[in-house]
Every structure is written in structure tokens, then in C-alpha cells.
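hiii so my PI (J.) wants the whole complex modelled not just the main chain, which honestly fair. so below is everything: two entries, each one labled with what it is. i double checked the lines twice but i was tired so who knows lol
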Amino acid sequence: MLQKFGRDYATKSLVPGKRVYGERIIRKGKEEWRVWDPTSSKLGAALVKGLKNFPIKKGMKILYLGASTGTTVSHISDIVEHDGIIYAVEFSSRSMRDLIPLAKQRKNIAPILDDARLPENYAALIEKADLVYCDVAQPDQSEIIMRNAKVFLKPQGWMMIAIKARSINVAKNPKQIYSEERQKLSKMFNILEQIDLQPLEKDHAFFVGKMK
Amino acid sequence: MIYVSFCPLGVFAADASGKEVARVLFEHGNAAKNLRSCMSIAVSDSEKKLISQIKSDKIVFEQKKEGYEHEFPNPAGEYLRRNTESIAAKTGFASKEKFLEFVSSIALQRSSEKMIESFSSDKLVIQAVNAVDELDKVLNTLSIRLREWYGFYFPELGQKIQDNEQFVNYVAEELYRKDAKGIQVCESIGSDVDKKDLEEMQRLAKSLQAMYSERKSIEGYIDARMKEIMPNTTAIIGSVIAARLLSIAGSLEKLAKFPSSTIQILGAETALFRHLVSGGRSPKYGILFQTNYVQQAPFERKGKMARLLASKLSMAIKIDFYKGNPVGAEYKKALDAELAKMKKGR
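here's the output for the full assembly
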């Protein structure tokens, strides 16, 4: 469950008593709410910057590419609860070292140590998803999300992507990169929203769309 | 044509329209093990069992399989990705929640196994290289602190002994000022301090002494380990610089996949990005600047030497990674000859 507390967003902790990344905790009676730090999660930053389309809901199946150590994943895990699942794909075994203990605590996270460029490697573990989330910081990140969406996304399913301009081309103007990536993604998705994450994340844009 | 794919529940076959024609379910407790054998290129037992039930001779798998065609995505996989949850409900999973928990536990097992497999000893060396760098930083900072501190008592010593390690050794071994290296104690402008003050300084010096010896020991370890991991590269540029290349790349596999032009400027990332962003001149060398080859080459040939060295290194690194025949000595000879020519001005 997601809720606003003053200026901050917070999710109701699925595993009370456990912090994931040193986030602030708000207690409300017996409930425990984990504050979503916008400086360490791009989705958190997008929310603070006024994201209007936030499709993640209880019970959703989510394919998350570039799960890293699970900061954002942990909040999504709070929202989808136990009748949803997050397939968390991460290629770095160093990040996996932190993600695995998190998945042991939260049964709705399925960690997958594999290259998001090669969906055939992990297809056997995954069902069709309601949403594909991509934060991989690779030059071909738009192609990566499309390749995965083609196989794993339900018709009319959602997509969210954090575009990191600097990992696409350091020399180009970020604004130009955003519009180029937007064009690429528009082949497959209707882009509903584009948010610049400045100043919370430098040279990052966040897109939300729906499968055509 | 019959298509085959698998999921955590078992192996399934479907026709081109995505209608299920056969299935072999995994035994409940063995799902992770069965899944793993289906993921390998060899045909697993469950798959053999499924094939024996299929009447068609044209079987297409979704993943690469020895002796069979494969197509990704295929109708059997599509069928499974749409229906695994409902199949699960029919085959004994009481609730959606239980099934999802089962899937994530399988994924968790698989990832843990892969993590253990992905370990390689080059990662240990990289940590050791970083430890040396950090020790250097700490030693430098604390040695300067000790100089300031001991300077109240014996300022002449700090001026006389420029080398940090020698300075630390002196303080660690001599509690009181002593005539040394042409300094007369009686002429010292230092103030007298209590024994307990001196003892505290000496304790710090002794810790630093231990850190200096630890640094040497790690260097020996890196040297020995690098000769095992990258024998050819180490033969050409020595273990220290080879280890630094490895540390910048992140792993031997990544380093082996770099082209020689990347190896040439490894360690000069700031200059490279400056070049890319604002069009300054491109860097000619990164970490390779520290090698004897580039150091000894005449000024106007340093760039050329770095390029030659990088090209030989990129081959040597690939041979190290894929464990080929030793070439280090041969490449070193070729580079030495090239350097000699350059020095003669040809």
C-alpha cells in the first residue's frame, strides 16, 4: 500500500521491523510505513516529481529489469503484497549478493541472476506480467525493455522505464536523447507520461506507457 | 510441428495453435533440480519422457537443445506464460499465493547456485589491489599526522627523513631523540615532552609499521596470484600494472573482451570523456603510461609505443582468459626489440 505522509511517500511494510536500505520508518498504531527515499530510488523520485500514472497495485505481476540491490524492488514488494510477484532480473552477482537476502525475507520477490538482453535464458521462470519496469543503465535500454515486453507483457500491459542519458551517449544533449528514446519506445507503447528527474537524479528521464 | 517448453511445473508440448498436446510434470520436491537440467543444452530425462509421448518427428524447443531446432518465443512457451498459474491450481497448488511462493523459491535457488558458479579468483585479486590503494592512502595521511605530532618533540627528524616508512620506523624503534644522520640532539629546537606523550606516538608508529609490512605482504600475494591468473600479461608488464588493468575492468572476462584500443586508454577515463564531450585531444595512454615500455620510449613515440603494447596485451589477456599456449615471453621479446629501435631513433 502506498500513501503520502506530508511531502513524503511511504509504503506499508510487508516485513515490519526490518529496514532494507536505511530508510526512515513511520509508525502508525501497529502499522509500519517505510518512507520512499527519492534520492535512492528513481521511481521514488518520479513520485516526488509528481508522477500522475502510477499503475502498480496489489496483486500485480511485475517484471523488473535491473533490480540492483532491491531498493525500489522492496517498495514495489510492499505494494503488490503476497498475491503479486516481482521477477527481479539483475546481471551483477555483487548486487545479487544483497538482493538474495531480501528475497528470502519477502516471498514475493523472485530474484533472477541473468542478462536482461537474453530473455530466453529466464523465460521458463516467468509468466506474463502486468507491468515491465526497466532501469538498466545500458546504451540499448529501450531495445532491452521492448524485447522483454514482446515476450512477457500482457496485452495493454504497462511499462515504466528510467532513461539514463549518460549511459546512452555522454556527448549528446540529454533532451535530444529523451526524444530519440521516446520515438523508439513509441513503436511499441503509447507513452502516457514523461518526467525529468532533475535534480533528484542527474540526466534521467522517466517514462510511463502502455502496450499498444 | 510440435513445440516444447518448460516452466517450474514441468515440461509441456503444444501445437502451432498453442493447444497443449502432452505434459510431463516435475516431482514436487525435485522441481529446482529438474528445471536446472532442462536449462542445459543436453536433453534432460523429463524432456526425453515427453518426446516419447509426442507422435510428430518435428519437435521445436524454446531453448537451445542438442539435436533439435529451437525458436524463441514459441507457441508452447506462450501457452505456459499465459496459463502456468491455472495449471498450477489444477495440479495441486491450493492458492495463487502458494504457487507464487513456489516460483520465487525456485528462482531464489537458481540464482544462489548461479552466484556461486560465477565466482572466480580474479575477483579476490581485485579486492587485494584495492586494499593496497587504500592502505597507501591511510599510511600517507597517518604518517603526516605522526610527523606533525612528533615534530613538537624532534622537528629536525621530520626534515631530515623525507621517506615516510623510514620516519615511522625511527619513531617506532627509538623512544627518545638520538643523534642520527647528522642531527645533533643538543641543538634541537624541539620541546621536551613527557614519557607518556612519547609512548602514545610510538604506539601509533608501531601500528603504521605493521601496516607497512601488511602492504608488502599483500603485494607479494598479488604477484603470486597474478602469475597464476594472467601469466602471459604478467610476463610482459609485471604483476602490479596487470592487476591494475584487471581492477579497472572489473573482471578477467570483461578485460578479455575489450579491444586493444580500450586497453590502451584504460585508466584515462576522465580524459576520454573530456575528449568526447568537449572535443579536446584524445588520450594516448592510461595506466600503460606507468610501464617501462612507455616510460622509456622517446617523447614523440610514447603514443605509438602505448598502441603497440596495448595490441600485444589484448592478445595476451585473451590467451590468459581462454587458457591458451604461453606467449608472454615471445611478445615481450618483440616489444623489447621495438623499444630498442625507437630508442635508436628509427
